[in-house]
Write a structure and sequence with these properties.
Strand order of the largest sheet: 2-1-3-4
Largest sheet: 4 strands, parallel
Radius of gyration: 19 Å
Helix content: 40-55%
Shape: elongated
CATH topology of the largest domain: Rossmann fold
Low-confidence stretches: 237-262
Order of helices and strands: EHEHEHEHEHEHEHEHH
Number of domains: 2
CATH class of the largest domain: Alpha Beta
Mean pLDDT: 88
Number of strands: 8
Length: about 260
C-alpha cells in the first residue's frame, strides 16, 4: 500500500485550518483503502519533514501530494526535497494547478458571489486574484488557470496578486474598465482571502469565496497521487506487505486522527 501525504501551506487562521482538514477528510473518504495524513510546509504542525519521518518508518512507500494551487518554492524545495531525501520510498506529486477543474470551481464560486441571480453576463471583465509568488513558474500557472476561466465564463480574465512578484491586485482593478468581478484563487480562507476581499471592495468589486473543500479538489488531488504512483513505481508495482500488528494499529490511529480531525 502507498500512503498519501497531503502537504498544505499552513495558516494561523482557524477557518483555513478547518477548510484544509475538511478537504483531506474528503480525500480519505473517496479512497478509503489508502492511508492519508496531512502535513504542512509552513506555519502549522505537523511540519512535513517530521511527518514524513514517521510515515516512512511505518510504510513501504508514500506520495507527497501538494495541496498547493501552483508550482513554486514549496513544491520545488519542500515537496520534492522529501522525495530526494528518500528516493526509494517517497515520490512527489505535481501541484494541483493548473488544471481545468480549478477553473470550473472558480466559475462556480464566481457565480455564487454574483447575487441575486449569479449571472456572469452582468460582468464585463474578471480579475483572478492570487496570493502571489516570487517564482515565475507559479505566475505562469496562475495565467494558465486565468485562460481556462476566461474560456468558461466567456469574459476577459486578468491576474492580480496580493504578494510576491507580478502586478498587484489593486493596480489591476484600477486599470480594468467596466463592471468587474474578482475570482479568489485561493484554497482556503485566511489572511490573503481577507486581503483580496478588502482590495476588491475598495475598487467597488465583489470577490468570490476561496475554492474550499470541494469534492472536485479532492478528486484532483487523488489524480495527482495516481499519476505520481504511475511515474515512480509503474515498473515495479509490487510492494512487500507488513504483517506487524503494532504497525497496522499505528496506521489506523493516524488515519482516524485525519478523518475525525478539526
Amino acid at each position: 500500500m502507498t500512503d498519501l501525504v497531503a502537504a498544505a501551506h499552513g495558516t494561523a487562521d482557524p477557518r483555513g485550518i478547518r477548510a484544509v482538514h475538511s478537504l483531506v477528510r474528503i480525500i480519505a473518504r473517496l479512497r478509503p483503502e489508502v492511508p492519508v495524513s496531512l502535513g504542512f510546509v509552513d506555519v502549522d504542525t505537523p511540519a512535513l519533514p517530521s511527518l514524513m519521518t514517521r510515515v516512512v518508518a511505518d510504510s513501504n512507500r508514500a506520495v507527497v501530494v501538494p495541496l498547493l494551487l501552483s508550482s513554486g518554492y514549496h513544491v520545488a524545495v519542500d515537496v520534492l526535497g522529501e522525495a530526494t531525501r528518500r528516493p526509494d520510498q517517497v515520490a512527489a506529486a505535481e501541484a494541483l494547478g493548473p488544471d481545468p477543474v480549478l477553473a470550473e470551481i472558480l466559475a462556480d464560486r464566481l457565480a455564487a458571489s454574483l447575487r441575486p441571480d449569479g449571472d456572469v453576463r452582468g460582468v464585463d471583465r474578471v480579475v483572478l486574484a492570487a496570493a502571489g509568488s516570487s517564482d515565475r513558474r507559479a505566475l505562469l500557472d496562475c495565467s494558465a488557470v486565468a485562460a481556462s476561466l476566461a474560456a468558461l465564463v466567456n469574459r476577459p480574465v486578468e491576474v492580480g496578486y496580493v504578494s510576491g512578484a507580478g502586478e498587484r491586485l489593486g493596480a489591476v482593478l484600477e486599470r480594468t474598465p467596466g463592471r468587474v468581478a474578482v475570482a479568489t484563487y485561493l484554497l482556503a480562507p485566511g489572511f490573503f482571502a481577507d486581503r483580496i476581499a478588502t482590495v476588491a471592495a475598495r475598487a467597488g468589486a465583489t470577490a468570490s469565496a476561496p475554492l474550499g473543500p470541494d469534492p472536485r479538489l479532492a478528486t484532483l488531488a487523488l489524480r495527482r497521487f495516481d499519476e505520481a504512483v504511475a511515474r515512480r513505481w509503474a515498473a515495479d508495482p509490487s510492494e512487500p506487505a507488513c504483517a506487524c500488528p503494532g504497525t497496522r494499529r499505528a496506521r489506523e490511529l493516524a488515519r482516524s486522527k485525519i478523518v475525525g480531525g478539526h
